[in-house]
């Protein structure tokens, strides 16, 4: 592999930073300690910083030897998840009910290593903005940073992101043009019936049966209304109703998620869900309230930037190490908001199968959002080398 040698030499030092962050996870917009660690490291390497965008966000600005009017943004996320860690190794979470189960500690470490190198080797023209973003896990930290002036205070021509991907071999990357990850949307349906004794159902209106019928009907949107070549998911994940075995309740509530790769599919699903909910509840003599919340758009890679990233990756891991036909995921990513504002590309870096984990890891697999997950520190020089070579080559390329 074609790695940046100084970064390889720093691996143990950067790994220690990563493990410190892992041991002290912070949730969305609470990343005060993590942001302090990032800011202190950047400033120690002579990188001026902006703080406060997205509440706890940190942006470092690295100017090259000359300015050619071009600027690039490299983004990492910093927040953890509200879940209990099952690992017991030395760097396991010290904060109960909080865990870096998605590798944002590793993303932060890789970008820190790249920033250190770029600050010490300013043999490029233009400007690199290193973006350390809060609140990716469901709280729209990317959008908050944009709303707080990310792209006006730190002008850039393109922006790039990267996420570790368990199950993909270490030393490999995945990237495709177009949709890379799905949109994230939630819904809530409240059905109002009429309570009665369960032994005398004819005296009431049963919202539980209405919920059961509605749950089945909603699935026909995917199987009968949507173009089968336009992927989408509609999952009902919660149905809550009742408190006793012999009582027909007054209310039933249903919640769930919708994922799509296109706005066209999302518009159709929301429209049909509205129609089926209201007409179906009427057929069961219930009243219905329906709420649909669009949270994250689909993460859509721009073709030109994707092709550029793929070529950079091939110079690092070889053509065989870049999967340009990887299957996209219906998981979501708020980097999507940045790609709506600027051209760019989001890649996956293989995290392996979990064999890297120290003794003391939990029994579960090393998958994202799992209590036994841990980021693979062998990715640090690889991911950081990609950031460095991407920035250098992109700034040197023709606009």
UniProtKB/TrEMBL annotation:
It comes from Paralcaligenes ureilyticus. NCBIfam families: amidohydrolases. PANTHER family: METALLOPEPTIDASE, PUTATIVE (AFU_ORTHOLOGUE AFUA_6G09600)-RELATED (PTHR11014:SF63), PEPTIDASE M20 FAMILY MEMBER (PTHR11014). This is Hippurate hydrolase. Mn(2+) binds at residues 102, 104, 137, 163, 369. Its cofactor is Mn(2+). InterPro entries: Amidohydrolase, Bact_exopeptidase_dim_dom, Peptidase_M20, Peptidase_M20_dimer. The Mn(2+) ion enhances activity. Keywords: Hydrolase, Manganese, Metal-binding. Residues 185-275 form the Peptidase M20 dimerisation domain. GO terms for molecular function: metal ion binding; N-acetyldiaminopimelate deacetylase activity. GO terms for biological process: diaminopimelate biosynthetic process.
């Amino acid at each position: 592999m074609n790695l940046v040698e100084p970064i390889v030499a720093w691996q143990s030092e950067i790994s220690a930073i990563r493990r410190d962050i892992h041991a002290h996870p912070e949730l969305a917009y609470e990343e005060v300690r993590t942001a302090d660690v990032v800011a202190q490291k950047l400033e120690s390497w002579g990188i001026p910083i902006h703080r406060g965008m997205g509440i706890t966000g940190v942006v470092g600005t690295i100017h090259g030897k000359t300015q050619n009017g071009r600027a690039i943004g490299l983004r990492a996320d910093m927040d953890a998840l509200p879940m209990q860690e099952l690992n017991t190794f030395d760097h396991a979470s010290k904060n109960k009910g909080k865990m870096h189960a998605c590798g944002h500690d590793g993303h932060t470490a890789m970008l820190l290593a790249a920033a250190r190198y770029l600050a010490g080797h300013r043999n490029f023209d233009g400007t690199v903005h290193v973006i350390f973003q809060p609140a990716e896990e469901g709280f729209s930290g990317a959008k908050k940073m944009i709303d707080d002036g990310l792209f006006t205070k730190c002008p850039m021509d393109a922006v790039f992101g990267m996420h570790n991907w368990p199950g993909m071999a270490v030393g490999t990357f995945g990237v495709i043009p177009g949709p890379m990850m799905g949109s994230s949307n939630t819904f809530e349906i409240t059905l109002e019936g009429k309570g009665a004794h369960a032994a005398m159902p004819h005296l009431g209106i049963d919202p539980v049966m209405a919920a059961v019928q509605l749950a089945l009907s909603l699935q026909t949107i995917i199987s009968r209304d949507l173009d089968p070549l336009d992927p989408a998911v509609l999952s009902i994940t919660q149905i809550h109703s009742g408190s006793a075995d012999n009582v027909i309740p007054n209310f039933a509530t249903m919640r769930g998620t919708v994922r799509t790769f296109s706005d066209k599919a999302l518009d159709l699903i929301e429209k049909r869900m509205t129609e089926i909910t209201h007409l179906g509840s009427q057929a069961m003599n219930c009243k219905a309230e329906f709420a649909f919340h669009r949270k994250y758009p689909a993460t859509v890679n721009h073709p030109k930037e994707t092709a550029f990233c793929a070529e950079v990756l091939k110079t690092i891991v070889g053509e065989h190490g870049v999967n340009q036909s990887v299957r996209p995921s219906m998981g979501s990513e708020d980097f999507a908001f940045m790609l709506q504002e600027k051209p760019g590309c989001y890649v996956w870096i293989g995290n392996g199968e979990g064999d890297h984990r120290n003794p003391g890891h939990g029994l579960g697999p090393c998958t994202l959002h799992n209590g036994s997950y841990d980021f693979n520190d062998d990715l640090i020089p690889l991911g950081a080398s990609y950031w460095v070579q991407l920035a250098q080559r992109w700034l040197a390329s023709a606009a």
